[in-house]
User: What shape does this take?
Amino acid sequence: MRRARTNATSGGAATVGYEAQLWQMVDARRSSVPSPSTGEGQGGGGCADIPGFRKSTRLEEVRKHDYVLTPGRYVGAEAQEDDGEPFEEKMQRLVAQLREQQAEAAKLDAAIAANLKALGYDG
Assistant: This one.
């Protein structure tokens, strides 16, 4: 229930104007938010499903999954573009890149350890 107060102890006319403004903003926002039951706001235009990001679902589907609300069950995964590189070649390239990065990481770890030792933190 919304009541506007006008007496001096409640903050006066400025408060009434501010409260009225807040309620107007809330009502405007409420009309643009999709309804849980219909998926559409009072102002129209519900939320569109976006694979891998957002999906509106019906209660029947949630029941079917025994009320498990894991997002992946409903949202799914975004469709991935095929880059045209055969899987075996891609894996060989990625493993080679990983090995290079691991070698670089080992060098950096050794340099950090040497610097810590030089500072007296050889633990």
